[in-house]
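Late entry, evening session. Most of the bench is empty. Finally got around to the prediction I had been postponing all week. Sequence below, unchanged from the version circulated by S.P.
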Amino acid sequence: MKTLSLKLDDKIFEETEKVVGKLKLPRNRYINEALHLYNQYQNRRLLKAQLSKESKMVAAHSLEVLAEFEKLDLHED
């Protein structure tokens, strides 16, 4: 486990203290869980952006392939 020094806005600290008091949860555990959830959220956002970018990159090629398939006469007797 790593130790770090952290500066929080006063309002965020006060809100955190209220919540951990109600939950009877150690502040350290609460912050660890919060960061874990936020990391998951950010990783999903990054993945979504990456997939969107890559999708746009292959869109033109996909349309070209589709056009080539449409040119083929697939109903030959």
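Two things to note before I forget:
The chain has a mean pLDDT of 90.
Residues 10-71 form one domain.
Will write this up properly tomorrow.
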